[in-house]
Amino acid sequence: ITQVSSLKKDIVLGVLSCLLEVSNELRETVHQEVLSIPILLASEDIEIMGDDDWKELEDVPRPQIEDKDLPEVTAKIRSAWVKSEHSIEIFIKERKKELVGEFRNRFQKRLKEELKLTKADYDVRIKDLEKRDAEWLERQKKAFDKQMAKLSQRELFAKDDIGKEIAMKELEWETFNRENEQLLNLLREERELMIDKIIPQRYTMANLEFWPIGVEFIVGGGSKA
Question: Which one, of 186, 176, 184, 185, lies nearest residue 138 by Cα?
Fold first, then answer.
């Protein structure tokens, strides 16, 4: 419980600290912060202090209430809180609904952006790999053809030996092709997984929690006038 001399003496301000925590469908916590909500506890109809007014008050020195004044101040706070408690509960529920809407819109916007970027990134990577592999395979094919031509011209070797070497070279060539095709398939599968599952789950809101974790009471120390 603190006091501000610039506030009227009959004012009771409750600065509600609420934890906001948002998680996605991958169960990752993507946003977490503590929000301070200054509430004027004047009556059953609470009033949320404006941002500008709270910023001015936030930096003002707020000394603790002296022990001798605590009983009277505590009674005043208790009375104000009891009158406002139901309205505060309603406010928290309504504020949570607003936050759910705000974050759902944020997630949807970010999802569209991330899907667009991810698709473009994988398309470029796959295209580059296909182009690079085509050029690389062409060079390997030329080298393979030269080796095969040399083997065919080597009359000193028995036909069986030449046949074995040709079969070995053909096997190497098939392995080259298979490995590159596997690499492309892996990249395509990864693209599909990211676009169809990972990105949508990462940028879809699964849960939003918003609950009070504490309150600071500020009472006025000035005149009633």
Answer: 176
Q: Measure the CA–CA gap between 80 and 85, rounded to whole angstroms.
A: 8
Provide, for the chain, the percentages of residues in helix, strand and coil under a 3-state DSSP scheme, each rounded to the nearest 5: 60, 20, 15
Q: Reduced to 3 states, what is the DSSP secondary structure of residue 11? A: coil
* Residue 61, amino acid: P
From start to end of the chain, where are the E strands?
Answer: 2-4, 12-24, 29-40, 47-48, 205-220
Average pLDDT for the chain: 82
Q: What gap in Å lies between CA 225 and CA 208, rounded to an integer?
A: 43
The region, left, alpha or beta by phi > 0 then psi within -120 to 50, assigned to residue 149 is alpha
Q: What is the C-alpha separation between 62 and 165, in angstroms, rounded?
A: 90
Statement: residue 58 has pLDDT above 70: yes
- Residue 100 to residue 157: CA distance in whole angstroms: 79
78, two tokens:
């208790």
pTM of the model: 0.72
Give the per-residue pLDDT at 73: 86
Rounded Cα distance, 36 and 15, in Å: 6
Does residue 224 register a pLDDT over 50?
no
Q: How confident is the model at residue 84 (pLDDT cuts 50, 70, 90)?
A: confident
* Radius of gyration, CA atoms only, the chain: 36
Residues 6+ apart with CB under 8 A from 94: none
Instruction: List the structure tokens of 53.
Output: 């007014």
Q: 73: number of CA atoms within 13 Å, CB side?
A: 19
